Amino acid sequence: MKKLIILFTLLNICSFASYAIAKPISVIVNAENSTESLTKKQLIDLYMGRFVAFPDNQTAQPLDTLTPEDLRALFYKRLVNMQLSRVNAYWSRVRFTGRASPPEQHQNEQTVLDFITNNPNAIGYVFSESLTQENKRGVKVIMELYE
Amino acid sequence: MNKSGLLLRLAISISFAAVFVGFISSQVFFKLAYQHNQDKTQENIEQLYDVVAPTANIAAYLGDQELAREVINGLKNSQSIIAASFESELFSLHSDNFLAEHEKQTEFIVTSPFSSSEKLGKVIVQHNLAYIEKDSKDAASFLSNSLLVQAFVVTIIAIFIAFYFITKPILIIARSLHSLNPGTARRLKKPTFHDKSELGNLVEDINLLLEKAEEQLSQERMLRSEIEVLEKRFRLLFENSVAPIILMEPRGNILLTNKAFKSLLERIEQPIKKNYGPILSELFETPELLTRSVNSAFLNDEIAIGEHRLKFKEEDKTIWLQVVVSSIVTDDLKSYYQITLNDVSKKRDELDKLSRRADYDALTNMTNRHAAEKKIDQFIKEKTPFIFVLMDLNGFKQVNDIYGHDAGDEVLIFVANQLKQLTPSESIACRWGGDEFVLVLKDMSKRDFEALAEQLTTRIVKPYTLITHQANVRVGLCMGAAIYPYDSSHKPELIHLADKAMYAIKPESKQKGGRTLAFASPIESKEHKYD
What we know:
The structure holds two protein chains of two kinds. The relative contact order of chain A is 0.24. Chain A contains five helices and five strands; from the N terminus they run αβαβααβαββ. Chain A has helices at residues 2-21, 40-47, 69-80, 84-97, 109-118; strands at 25-30, 61-65, 104-106, 122-127, 139-145. Chain A has a single domain (23-145), classed as D-Maltodextrin-Binding Protein, domain 2 (3-Layer(aba) Sandwich). By secondary structure, chain A is α/β, with parallel strands linked by helices. A five-stranded mixed β-sheet of chain A has the order 3-2-4-1-5. Chain B is an alpha+beta fold. Chain B has helices at residues 6-62, 65-76, 129-178, 198-239, 259-267, 287-299, 345-359, 369-382, 396-403, 405-422, 446-461, 491-509, 522-527; strands spanning 81-88, 92-94, 105-111, 119-127, 245-248, 254-257, 304-309, 320-329, 335-343, 367-368, 386-394, 428-433, 436-442, 464-466, 471-473, 476-484, 517-519. Chain A binds chain B through residues 41, 44, 48-50, 79-82, 90, 93-94, 96-97, 99-100, and chain B through 54-55, 58, 61-64, 66-67, 113-115.
């Protein structure tokens, strides 16, 4: 019985640890954007350049966030289950024909938040924990990506 | 090179086998290579598609025709692929030579790059069968060519080996065997390196055979020489036989004759023929008798022997032949007649002479006493009347004494001739013995006899010139006669009476002009007892 209790405790610790690493990522749009939610497929099509538009056919401008460092990697990992190198390779292939272009790259979460606040067509992502009462005033979270 | 020589045969056989094996194996190899190439092509294409799959997925995902064309071109660059098509929800592309129907094609499912379960289209790749076939053919022909080269090399090596290890030694053996005469002491030599090989054994066997042949030949030679000697002797015997010998078939075809037979034919002036009828019957006077006697002898399993007269005569002399016929049956059941002829004419003559001698006197060639007595018996038996005359010469003893027996014989012959000449044909003149003669005069009257007696006396008493001595001699005679059946009907009595009468007159007859004939007196005879 004692052993069993120890095992359960260990399991709990593990799950807690992973949870701690897997910080949720929030997909955000301009607060005035009519889109309330997106399916994962719709988000993939948007970010991978297939249909660069919201469900209401409003043009969308996806944004990449370069810092914090692991944000982008985690985002693509959770979105299409790909390493960044592969995502880059994908874009290098697509860019060759010029038919689609990769998301616009922004330096950090704050600039992304600012850009979306000022741009109703933009769509971006930040760690959910980075959102504060102040900085999420001009945006709305339409999706959260977990591990 | 010999058309049916071992080497050529070997070369042809190996070449044929090589070509055959090459053909079959290239066929099989082509099939295998084709299958293999197809499998390999399939694999290649799959590998190739793996390379272009991400691009294809992206192209389908984004509906990017440029990218899709890239994919098709990339695929088409491979030799294994002749055409390709790309169909997706947004577009449909295919290369120029894409066929609606193709024997061999592979379909790949194009999915989303981000979700492998999401099907976005398909890529169809058509295999380059011509290339696969050509490739397979090239591989197969390479194989068959190399097999051909190998076969050629193997053939050359095989011929070389066969020539040096088999054909050449065989040729050497054959050549020495060819020049070798069986029966000689020469033997074959084993070829080098073949002491213990099959060829060596062959040579040993041949030598063994040669040895046997030599033995047999020498034996045969000895036998043959013996036979030759024997044959020569037989030939000598046969050819020089005095008796004609003939070998013939039962039907009369002559197979073999000797010189004697030919000379017999010459003697009777007959042509030489192949057939004179069965058992030479044409030559004989009584052919039926001949054949009958021969057949009956053969029926009794005997050798037929008989004496037969030839139809033809030699200088009017009859030729008697003893004919000996024996039947010969050979081992192969063929029947032949062997006929031997013996000239028995001489024997016959001698026999005749012998029977003559029994009845005739050798010196005077007149009937002798024995024959005369037989004749008298016959006359008496037939009751034929005759006069029995007994005659004795006077002075014969003196001639014999003075001039010898030759002269005596001459006188006797002279007297006999006179008697023979004057005696009638049915009557008999006979030398009774010594200088005594007898006349048996058949059916003659007393008077006729007296005339005859006178005539006889005249002839005999006249001087006679001895040829041997050139001298004249003179003999006298006296005769005593008895008449049958008048004087007596018994022969001894008749002789006795005549004898008595002759001795009664003898003294008178010796005188010149005296009577020389006296008749028997019956009365006297009756008184006299004779034996």
